[in-house]
Specification:
Number of helices: 13
Strand content: 15-25%
Number of domains: 1
Distance between the termini: 24 Å
Shape: globular
Structural class: alpha/beta
Strand order of the largest sheet: 1-2-5-6-7-8-10-11
Radius of gyration: 19 Å
Bound molecules: ligand G3I
């Protein structure tokens, strides 16, 4: 029987610690509330060796009307220090955050607040984060051109990004500085636009040090798209971070979903294994790490309103901590690549 179907039929096979199988860092995301959850911490400490704060290191948490708020990201950074976990920061500049806090400023004050925010945040964690998503989701949703938003409208399409990378470099010269985006495998046009942007930023002198592909996989895409994007992205010779991997079994929109669970499990297994196989084939210096966007299925953003259908299994462990199809695809890929 195909291993993916076997995986769906036998949900109680244990997998070795994922971090012990991978030849590179295996991360997950975290929020402070989870650090007090015994089930979450047991799985996180067993299987992962890198943490990305899910939201508390972003502008939406740190930038308040009274100034900067660092209690939560500091706690996550300290937790990582005390548990020997690497820390990856997301995100310094994101189109979806900051507009309110920067509204009404003169061009000069806007630019100064932009620079000071990055200097303050990247400077605070200098030497503690391995890398930063400096600019997140710069490419238009449909992959045609760049997003237009308050950062680009006030500081320029390319200029605001180069400025962000320059500020981050000054604040933390040793951090790997990423341009991060999603649907790069799912939508080849978006992936191509993203890689053109990487080239444009590098030519403009921006210290882009890494490429982040969020990899919220659409498991219905044809075989080969994922490995094709990873192959293309590798051409820059930069570290690549699979930064937010999950593989939803749900279909957002479109025709009624008549796929059986075992069929979806097969699709999920095949796409996650394709991603992991392709990523593991990269040269060692380009394998920054593979981060799952959550530990248990019920920790996933995809199991929160408005996405939740109460059944999705996008991550490596189910609600009770049992390995899922995603865990088997990862472990089977890593065991075969050893
Ligand atoms: O925990 C608080 C809760 O105490 C409070 O009552 C509630 C209402 O304010 O907010 C809760 O925090 C929310 C948090 O998720 C935890 O659920 C934040 O408001 C909410 O903004 C935050 O959303 C995060 C989102 O990014 C925006 O930062 C999600 O957790 C996170 O999974 C999601 O991650 C993004 C990546 O950064 C970029 N790629 C897509 C990915 C999924 O959307």
């Amino acid at each position: 029987m195909a291993s993916g179907c076997r995986a769906a039929a036998q949900p109680d096979i244990a997998v070795p610690p994922l971090k012990s199988l991978a030849p590179y860092r295996v991360g997950t995301c975290a929020m402070t509330g989870q650090l007090d959850d015994a089930g979450w911490t047991r799985l996180a400490l067993t299987h992962f060796n890198q943490i990305t704060p899910e939201w508390e290191m972003k502008m939406e948490y740190i930038l308040t009307p009274d100034g900067y708020r660092f209690d939560a990201p500091d706690r996550i950074a300290s937790w990582c220090d005390s548990h020997g976990m690497a820390l990856h920061g997301t995100t310094l500049i994101w189109y979806s955050q900051g507009e309110e806090a920067f509204r009404g400023l003169s061009r000069a004050d806007y630019g100064q607040r932009f620079d000071r925010y990055i200097a303050a945040v990247a400077g605070r964690y200098a030497g503690r984060v391995r890398g930063w998503d400096v600019v997140n989701e710069a490419v238009a949703e449909d992959g045609v051109g760049l997003r237009s938003h308050h950062w680009s409208q006030n500081l320029g399409d390319i200029d605001h990004m180069r400025r962000a990378f320059d500020q981050a470099k000054q604040a933390d010269p040793d951090a790997v500085l990423f341009l991060n985006d999603y649907n790069l495998e799912n939508n080849p046009r978006k992936g191509a636009t993203f890689l053109k942007l990487v080239e444009q930023l590098l030519k403009a002198g921006a210290p882009v040090g890494g490429i982040g592909s969020q990899s919220h996989l659409n498991i219905e895409i044809p075989e080969g798209r994922i490995s094709a994007f990873i192959h293309e992205a590798a051409q820059f010779g930069l570290p690549l971070h699979i930064s937010e991997l999950d593989a939803s079994r749900r279909r957002e929109g479109g025709p009624p979903d008549v796929r059986s669970v075992s069929f979806r499990s097969r699709q999920q297994f095949d796409r996650v294994k394709e991603l992991t196989d392709a990523y593991s084939r990269l040269p060692e210096q380009q394998r920054y790490g593979l981060t799952l966007w959550g530990v248990r299925d019920t920790d996933s953003w995809l199991r929160r309103p408005p996405h939740d259908d109460g059944r999705d299994s996008p991550l490596a462990f189910d609600a009770s901590g049992q390995p899922t199809t995603v865990a088997r695809a990862l472990s089977e890929s890593w065991l075969r690549s050893q």
